[in-house]
Amino acid sequence: MKAGVKFGEGAGNFGVQEIDTPTVGDGDVLLQVKATGVCGADVLLYEWTYKGRFPVETPIVLGHEGSGIITEVGKNVKGLKVGDRVTVESIIGCGSCYHCHQGMPNLCPQWEHLGITSNGTFAEYLRVPMTAVHQLPDNVSFEEAALVEPLSIVVHTFDRIKFFLGDSVAIIGPGTMGLLLTQAVRSYGASKIIVLGLGKDKLRLKRAMELGADVTIVTDQGDPVKEVLDLTNGLGADVVIEVGGTPESFKMAIKMVRGAGQIAALGYSHYGEVEPITLARQEISILGLIAFMPRHFEQALRWLEFKKVSTDALISHRLGLDEAERGIHLMRDKEATKAILIP
Q1: Coil, helix or strand at residue 129
Q2: pLDDT score at 53
Q3: What are phi and psi of 178, to 5 degrees?
Q4: CA angle, corner 72, sides to 127 and 306, nearest 5?
């Protein structure tokens, strides 16, 4: 089968190659991949700047956002059959630790991750455990379902934040997560949605306005903190969702949230300045969250089924698998709001 393979360490070293089609184990399913999203993590892996929980070993098939049709099931698989339309979780817990028993494989210390610790979705076929599979509603397309994985992280965000009707929300970072969050907070009844990005995010900031943002702010021009304070009558935003992933965006989030406000930290910066006295004096709550739980996948599918959020609205480029490297470049250079591959 064809697959997009990171075949060596260092920047680049990626190409579409012929590799063996996976064989299924007793509890596995094999699916023909119909659509797969290109994520920021794929860009980091391509550039070899990814810093994760475990070292990444090459060669590895990239990609972790995907959907497809089941073509084979293991002998112990129940509730699934050949021909089922599905999407898949990217994180697979060990199944036996405390967190897995609590339904939180995202916190499993020994998780496997598609496209990072095991072969991913940039391929014609993918093998996953049956426990990682979710069936699609009839009215959800493969392309829409390819982005259920990032949408499930948005669901997780609302599971953690105490969001109230009429809250003002600042979203730092207009990438895939930021654009999905923009739609979600609009559906939740935010009074004012402010999306912040860099000058080179011009295309994505424009899309944010089309998807429900009230205001966009270019953070490397002027004083973005002052602008947010001015837009919120000097209070600051009730909720700040940080998906910029830089020390600067995290520091900015603390300065633009109101007293007793909430910050959701989704950007995963490895460094950031925090003054405990500021958190105490302002009674700021910072909520960390990582990835998703299985129930968040089910809720994300419900959002799509009932048209509460559109993943299709993000997709600007649809490419064949042979164009996987171009898709990575488009996302890296911010020339796409979202690129997906159609193997």
Answers
A1: strand
A2: 84
A3: -60, -40
A4: 75
Domain-by-domain residue ranges, the chain?
A: 2-147+315-342, 153-288
59-109 pLDDT, tens per residue? 999 999 999 999 999 999 999 999 999 999 999 999 999 999 999 999 999
How far apart are alpha carbons 121 and 45 in whole angstroms?
14
- Would you state the structure tokens that stand for residue 250, as one six-digit string? 């995290």
pTM for the complete prediction? 0.97
Question: Is 2-147+315-342 assigned to CATH 3.30.360.10?
Answer: no
CA–CA gap between residue 288 and residue 7 (Å, rounded): 33
**CATH class assigned to 153-288:** alpha beta
Q: In whole angstroms, how far apart are CA 150 and each of 38, 105, 175, 296, 335?
A: 11, 16, 11, 10, 19
169: nearest Cα among 223, 214, 218, 219: 214
Structure tokens belonging to residue 168: 């003002």
Average predicted confidence (pLDDT) for the chain:
97
